[in-house]
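Colleagues,

Please find the record for the two-part complex below.
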Amino acid sequence: GESVGLHLPTLSVQEGDNSIINCAYSNSASDYFIWYKQESGKGPQFIIDIRSNMDKRQGQRVTVLLNKTVKHLSLQIAATQPGDSAVYFCAEKTGGNEKLTFGTGTRLTIIP
Amino acid sequence: NAGVTQTPKFQVLKTGQSMTLQCAQDMNHEYMSWYRQDPGMGLRLIHYSVGAGITDQGEVPNGYNVSRSTTEDFPLRLLSAAPSQTSVYFCASSSWERMNTEAFFGQGTRLTVV
């Protein structure tokens, strides 16, 4: 079946640098792509989403890029802070409004 | 605001026991979902509901039952616990307005079946 996956399971970045977390997807019919952040011992938290007819969307210190040609999604975090250390999941919404399909996650570690 | 509240936070069951994981939300959201999270496998959808009285199966529904008698509550029942159901369970809710992309998650229930 269709799945959402990530290129790298772990990523270490120096504090203050920019982070880029990548995600590959295979379902061309997905209409939304979403990024979630999960801190240790907590539930996932919504960061930002992008509709499939968009290429880029910016939020506070975050930018999501969508490349439909190669079915690739990325999350850029500017000027990373210790609080950005977490596992980041990409997810896609398909089948109407009912279901989110999550990838396996990337652990981001910020080095002081 | 409480958001999504899950109880209990931790539970140990013996194989064959049954139990109910509770989930309540106070945001008047239409959508509610249950996921399980296992190491290296992300979150997998167990069951979901698009409104009171309506439920459907997700990716891994076997061994679990749900019901949605009210907008606020969405309990998950384990019928006969098995070690394979050892996992962290998350309940989530979202609104029709946000097209089910911005899901709000509870803190999770860590379940161990021995």
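Chain A has no helices and eleven strands.

Comments are welcome before we finalize the supplementary table.
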